[in-house]
From TrEMBL, chains A, B:
The protein's name: AB hydrolase-1 domain-containing protein
Alphabetically ordered keywords of this record: Hydrolase
One GO molecular-function entry: carboxylic ester hydrolase activity
InterPro entries the UniProt entry points to: AB_hydrolase_1, AB_hydrolase_fold, FrsA_esterase
Domain AB hydrolase-1 residue range list: 41-171
One Pfam short name: Abhydrolase_1
Keyword Cell wall biogenesis/degradation belongs to the record: no
Annotated family: Belongs to the AB hydrolase superfamily. FUS2 hydrolase family.
Presence of keyword Repeat: no
Organism superkingdom: Bacteria
Database matches in PANTHER family: DIENELACTONE HYDROLASE DOMAIN-CONTAINING PROTEIN-RELATED, POLYKETIDE TRANSFERASE AF380
């Protein structure tokens, strides 16, 4: 793990890093409260499809989780996203998605194929990121939470199923097709967000994924609006949820 | 409005009262913070079917809303509930519900009939209760919120549709059959609770009622469990919701 920059704003220290792993260099960013010392909860955030580790809404969420809750927060570019090269297979699937989006074809099988392809790489990478970050003195081996919407949910579900250090997660904006099997292995408390008028994820598929989780404590929050229009008050709820389960 | 008793516990003053109205005496209870003076938000709570104005969960909720948020909270016995006589028609419907519950018949048409019958009386009564309570110096003409689950939702929906003083509501555990038409007239912010394994209200009917509300800000919270098993953390959410919209 190699740190490349360090900045501080709003009481939070942001450190850019790269981590060498099987599939190449993973670019990442770690947020911790200024002057943090000792073990604290760690939130791993997974970004959406076509986005990257420093998307503005992700940065805003990380700053609040760190400043208000005292957590460490880490995000990395998913395989083929941000500063990372796309594989041939990924190029092929994305090109086909664009074609079908124009011709009105069925997107779900391609989304499923893409998430499956990327999860095979992301799950071991993210476990390695948790390993590396938890070795830092100002993070340490505390409880881990996961936050991910859309593709961040599609990749997050198999990650959580594989990673016993994750104790609670906020997921959403994704359907059962890509991850129902892994969802059935998840038993940690969940908050699951659904956009009631989601143009990308059918409502029934969202409800089916919520159904699939084995967790006894799981809450579905549904709000009107399209895929990207989660209301701001849900971030307050996310902070309280992680504080209750990791704090 | 005639007060019959006054008690204080946990920093909250509880006053029992009766209000004379068209259909006879309405027994009620008002909670306000000890020493309250001046105008404050008022929450009207509607109890569930077969219950009454001082059901233990209702009292616990009222104490928190009053002590932690500084609100006034009022609850009255619904028509034919608590200390109030049942009408012949109500007796007939309830007897038929018991028969069908034993024989496995369809309950929804009877629940609809009962809610329609009671709402015709409860809606004008509750408006009169708000009138009377808001004339008190320590309540005053502040914003009004409504909380009601199950029958409290079935009667609450037409009440909110008829009462412009209501600015926000927490509803749930009821389906579209009894109140979809009134729901379409409601535009205030809503928090709507669904029990995912509700044995009394079909999941599709709950989702259809959530759909029917015209409110642009409405959030559905679904949790695993049966009709009466709303998790405790939803009360925290209720307090924050009313504080955000009425506080």
């Amino acid at each position: 793990m190699r740190f490349t920059s360090r900045t501080s704003y709003d009481g939070v220290t942001e450190q850019l890093f790269t981590l060498s792993f099987t599939f190449g260099e993973i670019p990442g960013v770690l947020w911790t409260p200024d002057g943090a010392a000792g073990t604290r909860p760690l939130i791993l955030m997974g970004h959406g499809g076509g986005r990257h580790k420093q998307a503005p809404d992700g940065v805003a969420r990380a700053l609040r989780l760190s400043a208000e809750c005292g957590f460490a927060v880490v995000a990395v570019d998913a395989p083929g996203h941000g500063d990372r090269p796309r594989s041939e297979e990924q190029h092929r699937i994305i090109a086909e998605m664009r074609t079908r989006a124009q011709t009105g074809g069925e997107l779900t099988p391609l989304v499923t194929a893409l998430h499956t392809l990327l999860a095979g790489q992301a799950v071991p990478e993210w476990r390695a990121v948790v390993d590396a970050v938890q070795e830092l003195d100002h993070v340490g081996p505390g409880p881990v939470g996961y936050w991910g919407m859309s593709m961040g949910c599609g990749l997050g579900v198999p990650f959580i199923a594989a990673e016993p250090r994750v104790r609670a997660a906020v997921l959403g904006l994704n359907g059962a097709e890509t991850s129902a099997e892994a969802a059935a292995q998840i038993t940690v408390p969940l908050e699951f967000l659904v956009q009631w008028d989601d143009e990308m994820v059918p409502r029934a598929a969202s409800l089916a994924l919520f159904d699939a989780f084995a967790s006894t404590e799981k809450t579905l929050h549904a709000n009107p609006g399209r895929h990207g229009e989660i209301p701001a008050f849900e971030l307050d709820s996310t902070l309280r949820f992680f504080t209750r389960h990791l704090g």
